Amino acid sequence: MSSEWYELIGRPKFVVAPMVDASEIAWRLLCRRHGAQLCYTPMFHSNVFTKDPKYRKDNFVTCDEDRPLIVQFCGNNPEVMAAAAKYVENDCDAIDINLGCPQIIAKRGRYGSYLQDEWDLLSNIVQTMTKAVSVPITCKVRIFESIEKTVKYALMLQNAGCKLLTVHGRTREQKGPLTGIASWKHIKAVREAISIPMFANGNIQCLEDVYRCLEFTNVNGVMSAEGTLTNPAIFEGINPLVWEMADEYLDLVEKYPCPSSYIRGHMFKMFHKIFTIEDNFDDRHLLATAQNLSDFRQVSMNIRDKYLPYHHGKVHFEDGENMYSNGYNLILPPWICQPYVRMSPEQHKNKMEELSKKQQNNENKRIHEDSEGVVLSRKKMKKLKRIMRRPIKPDSQQHTRGQESCVSDACRNPLGGKCVYQLCKKCCKEKCFKEVLDCKGHRILVLTRRELAKTFEENRSAIPVLNQLETF
């Protein structure tokens, strides 16, 4: 078995999956502290990675603690992917090719699972990247409906030079509300056919699932994505308090900053059961609109102060809020990190049919649902659309308006964020008219317009003189 490099990185069994906008360095370090033995970076677009230095600098961040590490790329051009791999080969232990992404954006970009039928191209990509870099090239794939075709697919990649294969036991069509159960039978069949190290992905909600998968499939390691998002200590085999994990993550973000959208996504996943309780909707709104670390810490603090008495047994469910007023039958209390259990495709289908019948009887309204298949009200949809129209910027790009005042005496208005003279718009307008100035920040163009008027008047007065010259 060609696995010397795998031995050198410690034969990891517990693996954190590559997740776009979710497996940044702060999250990887949090998972490593709680049992993860190997982490993947988020998927990087090879074409953008090679052309845009800012994209590389902003997205590929690592440190000495962040090892072993596998960097994942997507793309369909062998030379471009090899060039992207060259940038990171000295800062990672292997480079992975994303052949598993099932999203529509992957179809448009012709990468991920939408390359799984182009075997000649994939073989060329693996071979070209292998020749270009000194670290192993690995692949992450999805299965075909046929076990036989899946095995042939895996063997093709191994023969092309792939040094480790991760098999997600779902087909390309199994996504969103149609995700369903991953097939460990396909994974087991591939494991029996190939000789390189292999990871399994799918159906992991707790540490017991990891060991069941290892025993059934005989793979070298198990990768988890959603399981780590709702419980970053999944590989440690514990279910910690949600605010403890949130605070530890925010401490890491303070050291390794990332966009607010990443933080918000992680905290929504960890607090997902808490936020199903109606009394916590204010904290949910605070998290949805948070723009800095202090706001995110405030959410965690509010939840801790509210539920710590329940956790210590000082307040019982029947003595306080009805934790399960929404009909959730939880094995663990909602303030404990726990798996997110998806609705089965059959349940989703039945639910949508019932809703469709109900709406046909009442009024003809469209049914809206999120990526997890949860039906959203019209009011919620309008709110989400408003939020989408106001894209969230990184903390470093946030306006500081309101924190500084106009420099004019006796004026307490906030200064304009781009004002040339550090004034509010009213004071700036007065200054420009008095002193004949321009302020591009406030779009006040007194000087420019007066010069244009002067030029126009000069040209206009010259017209009679020209007429007189023409008569001679």
Automatic annotation (TrEMBL):
Alphabetic keyword roster: Flavoprotein, FMN, NAD, NADP, Oxidoreductase
Region (Disordered): 353-372
Keyword NADP: yes
InterPro entries, alphabetized: DUS-like_FMN-bd, tRNA_hU_synthase_CS
Alphabetized GO MF terms: flavin adenine dinucleotide binding; tRNA dihydrouridine synthase activity
CDD domains membership: DUS_like_FMN (cd02801)
Signal peptide as annotated in the record: none
Annotated DUS-like FMN-binding domain residues: 16-260
Pfam families registered for this protein in UniProt: Dus (PF01207)
The protein's required cofactors: FMN
PANTHER family registered for this protein in UniProt: TRNA-DIHYDROURIDINE SYNTHASE, TRNA-DIHYDROURIDINE(16_17) SYNTHASE [NAD(P)(+)]-LIKE
Protein name: DUS-like FMN-binding domain-containing protein
Annotated organism of origin: Manduca sexta
Species lineage: Eukaryota, Metazoa, Ecdysozoa, Arthropoda, Hexapoda
